Amino acid sequence: MKILTANRLTDGEAVWYSTDHSWAEIIDRAELAQDKAAEAALEAVGKAAYDDNLVVDVNLVDVEVIEGAIVPNRLRERIRASGPTNRNDLGKQARPQAA
Amino acid sequence: MYRYDEFDHDFVKARVAEFTDQVDRRLAGEITEDQFRPLRLMNGVYLQLHAYMLRVAVPYGTLNSKQLRMLGHIARKYDKGYGHFTTRQNIQYNWPALSDVPAILADLASVEMHAIQTSGNCIRNVTADHFAGAAADEVADPRPYAEILRQWSSVHPEFSYLPRKFKIAVTGAERDRAAIQTHDIGLHLKKNEAGELGFAVYVGGGQGRTPLIAKKIRDFLPEEDLLSYCTAILRVYNLHGRRDNKYKARIKILVHETGTEEFARQVETEWAELKDSQLTLPEADIRAIEAYFAPPALTARPEGDEAIRLARLDSKSFSEWLDQNVTTHRHPDYAAVTISLKGIGEVPGDASDSQMEAVADLAEKYAFDEIRVSHEQNLILPHVARADLKAVYDALVEIELATANSGLISDIIACPGLDYCALANARSIIVAQNISKRFASLERQRDIGELKLKISGCINACGHHHVGHIGILGVEKKGAELYQVTLGGSGDENTSVGDIIGRGFGPEEITDAIETVVQTYLALRVDRSEKFLDAYRRVGPAPFKEALYGGEAKAA
Ligand code: HEM
Ligand code: SF4
Questions:
Q1: For the segment B46-72, what is each residue's pLDDT rounded down to a tens digit?
Q2: pTM of this prediction?
Q3: pLDDT of B276 strictly over 50
Q4: Does residue A72 sit at the B interface (CB-CB below 8 Å)?
Q5: A contacts of B98 (beta carbons < 8 Å)
């Protein structure tokens, strides 16, 4: 399974393309691509958003759904989704909605 | 300290205006990311995992209190209340919004600072001994030459698009505290028999995926030939350095593949054309730049000895700090103070906004307004009267920056690693924190003695792991973090690249592995005077391998 992620142009904030077709600051509602066709669709969305100067560094990343939560396979992406592991007062994990 | 002249002011102001315009156009969608990326990199703006990152140059690691206060102000106003001092004597902010960067650069310019040439394939910030101008063992202050190099290399038209980045380091003492042999050019300022100043010139050192120790290509280069000779080196590199392969593009590869002798010959040939050209530095110009770095008026403060004697009796912790973090000054009444940014369990190199401001206040009050950033990610007050050391210590205790661990195992260099860096394979910070906590006892650390532990989160080696007495390199194996240990590296006048000791260790095992290495050393050292590095050089890797992997080999 894959999801689409990027950093927002204006402030670099890590964002995920979500089921409501917005770029959300949290990973929770990211749109899941279950097959090649869905991946291609996400890729097209990413390219369009990049071309529109909304986001930069656009990538599809591998995830699993564990007990209803989206969990990226790579530690790198898990850190992007929550924040530095050495300080939980920084990044997404520090925000109320991430709890 | 160097002060901007009219030209510098105008140049930095013009650059801020130019980049402000570029950011505006980018945010308005008038230029694409592909067009913008090289522009932002030229101004120190990277994109990391969580946000943009801004790298601010601290030329040869020298700051005044106004500048450090501004760095604190920027951390508070535009970032998340802290900054990260790096092995390149710079500071990085981890969370700035692109839209705020123009304002940050304008604030920096107001205190004669900038982020120019902190990225890209150009000549980067020139680094220098952090005790420059204060060290008792120094021939002369290396910073005037670093400043001359900075002026010469700033937006140098010929050398702005080199095959790869280019780093120059300068030291003015036999004891190399600037790791010059791991730089593209390393300059060792010294005097010849006639008492004239000049440089031993090293070229082709570097870390990264191919660690190589610089080769000496000249034993004595007269000071007036500094720029013509460096130009000759850069011309040879610019012409022959490999542009086809990023991993082979550094000058170290060229020197290695060409051979030192042949490379030196090419430089000499090029130099024959340049020597005695307008690149020759007029004596008056050198002395004029030198005047900016004139030492402060260090008045006699002979009461220091008695003050210290009494304070030592009064406070054991002060006494320990004095022994560990205070370095001999060339003036007997003064000392250089290392402010450890390595509190036990803290992030190496991080300082909060209020800590920066407090250190700025201390520098203003007790240290002639000077602060240095060391490549070991600490701050230095280079000139403190010994009579004031207790007051400085007490103030540092207040802001939790009085850890007496300079040069000990918890004085760890660590790069940002996977907690921030987009290129990382593994985390570095947490490894440093865990090791620091394991060896929390300063008494034990002192018993272990000098031990330089350095950690990088990928093979780019920003954390200098190749030259750590103990080096730790984070790699990714099958999606998990793995830490490779190297032993016997050193980044001083006897530079060596550490040996990879064997298979790597998982995040849960690495602290124990370091403990094993340290225990092995303690068991085999001749006595307390034999430092870790000396012991390793005497016995080699075998006992350490046996201790780390012996059981496995037997089981297999
Ligand atoms: C955070 C973003 C960073 C990026 C993208 C980055 C990138 C790189 C790369 C690609 C290299 C390898 C260059 C080569 O071998 O040609 C390198 C080397 C190096 N970097 Fe970084 N780095 C970063 C942060 C840092 C930090 C925080 C420091 C200081 C603590 C630092 C200091 C160095 C040093 C000392 C080297 C090795 C010396 C050399 O051979 O150039 N870098 N970096
Ligand atoms: S060594 Fe690797 S992980 Fe560490 S800062 Fe450099 S590029 Fe990033």
A1: 999 999 999 999 999 999 999 999 999
A2: 0.94
A3: yes
A4: no
A5: 9-12
Domain definitions of chain A by residue range: 2-98
Of B50, B419, B430, the CB nearest to A14: B50
Per-residue tokens: B548: 């780390």
Tens-place pLDDT, residues B81-105: 999 999 889 999 999 999 999 999 9
- Rounded distance, CA B2 to CA B277, Å? 26
**Are residues B507 and B499 in contact, defined by beta-carbon separation less than 8 angstroms?**
no
Q: H/E element holding B75?
A: helix B65-78
* Paired tokens of B340: 């450890």
Give the pLDDT score at A98. Answer: 47
Residue of B460, B463, B458, B462 whose CA lies nearest to B435: B463
CB contact under 8 A, A13 and B347: no
CB A34 within 8 A of CB A63: no
ipTM for the complex shown: 0.95
CA B109 to chain centre: 23
**What average pLDDT score do residues B509-530 get?**
97
Structure tokens at B317: 């912790």
Question: Are the beta carbons of B282 and B366 closer than 8 angstroms?
Answer: no
Residues framing ligand 1 (Cβ under 6 A): B 46, 48, 53, 86-88, 92, 164, 167, 206-208, 250, 415-416, 421, 423, 460-462, 464
Both tokens assigned to B556: 């297999």
Task: Give the number of whichever ligand sits closest to the CA of residue B87.
Answer: 1
Structure tokens at A42: 């996400």
Partners of residue A64 on adjacent β-strands: A71
> How does pLDDT run across B203-255, given as a tens digit for each residue?
999 999 999 999 999 999 999 999 999 999 999 999 999 999 999 999 999 99
Residue B552 confidence (pLDDT) above 90: no
